[in-house]
Amino acid sequence: MTAFPAPLLANIRDRFAHVDTCPFQGPRIFFENAGGALTLKSVVDTSAIFAALPDNQGRDNPAAHALMARIAQAKSDMAVFFNAPGGQFFVGESGTELTFRLIRTAVMGAADGGVVIGSTVEHPASRSAARQWADQAGKSYVAVPHDDATGAVTPQAYADLMTPDVRVATILHTSPVTGIANDVAGISAAIRATAPDALIFVDGIQHASHGHIDIASYDIDGYVVSPYKVFSRHGYGVAWVSDRMTALPLEHLQGGPEANWEMGTRDTGSYATFSDVVAYFDWLGSQHSDSPDRRSRIEAAAAAIHDHEKSLTDAMLHGTGNLPGIAELPGVTVLGGVDNSAREGLVCFALDHLPAADIVARLNACGIRTHVRKADHYSGNILTPLGLDAAVRVSLCHYNSLAEVSALLAAMKDISAPA
């Protein structure tokens, strides 16, 4: 696995706002990408353009026609990016809001009785929604245990607890705590082997910025991402739903279109800024592929991102130059294990002699932005079984550099040294 050559990395970094400087802190290294990735400069420009427009969609005037055309183009772009030849895309308030809405629709629209199944590795958004609406619908909830050592939940673990009366299933694509990805296609196949008519929802929020999304290969019914975690901005989420999901009873205006997921006037800027994201992946893929096919270029971008990020996480774990890696620090626990092929751009660790919050604070004083994950409602499902009350999350994206990793390791060498 190789990192991007320096000229290409410089070109990549130039496309993002605040890549190495915080307007409130000054110079800093950004390793808090799982909390929200950097924003493309094109997204900032597009947001300003559409925020200034007073016109509504659906009117008979040139501005309204242009807005509808941008939304239609964005949905077409989304279909290429997610590789979703069927179904439909729509935007909502946030990834969490869309997660609740899709799971609510699936659980309440499914046949009476039966089971809702998910896993212990999931983000609280999908776990909470599944439990809440299972209770409301009089369905039982089954939690598939994840493996504490690897941080993953396997297709076999789902298969072991599957029953023919499973109505709805939820899957986490990648953990925002450990950075470990799960085999979505394999889990979906395990679900359908026993309950072929189950409605399957996938949380792709953490996965989206790091690599390949291929809805056509998953055999699922819903997929949600948060665009602020994939180089766009806050204030909206993107959902894909299958035609089968859309055929369920939906909330809609009386007398309005029955197959419509959108409620109220959409923010055209949301759609337009996601087109900026897709255009960026297309451009990055064109640096690695001569294919005339846009989807092929996006797949090339995903492969290049994976290789670059793996080179960085390998250096972060095993060291570079004369700097020891995080895995070599005394008293360290690396969540998901040190050598885990499913890791996506994230290293989460704890030291037995230094509180995680102190490490994060001292790194921040060095101009290195990371984040503490506590054993709370967000991360307790991962940390508590490991006997940890907190851990340090170092999350990167493909615009980060080996020099930034080296700065982190140099700081950690000093921070972890005995007093």
From TrEMBL:
<keyword id="KW-0808">Transferase</keyword>
<keyword id="KW-0032">Aminotransferase</keyword>
<dbReference type="InterPro" id="IPR015422">
    <property type="entry name" value="PyrdxlP-dep_Trfase_small"/>
</dbReference>
<protein>
    <submittedName>
        <fullName>Aminotransferase class V-fold PLP-dependent enzyme</fullName>
    </submittedName>
</protein>
<dbReference type="InterPro" id="IPR000192">
    <property type="entry name" value="Aminotrans_V_dom"/>
</dbReference>
<keyword id="KW-0663">Pyridoxal phosphate</keyword>
<dbReference type="Pfam" id="PF00266">
    <property type="entry name" value="Aminotran_5"/>
</dbReference>
<dbReference type="InterPro" id="IPR015424">
    <property type="entry name" value="PyrdxlP-dep_Trfase"/>
</dbReference>
<feature type="domain" description="Aminotransferase class V">
    <location>
        <begin position="29"/>
        <end position="408"/>
    </location>
</feature>
<dbReference type="InterPro" id="IPR015421">
    <property type="entry name" value="PyrdxlP-dep_Trfase_major"/>
</dbReference>
<dbReference type="GO" id="GO:0008483">
    <property type="term" value="F:transaminase activity"/>
</dbReference>
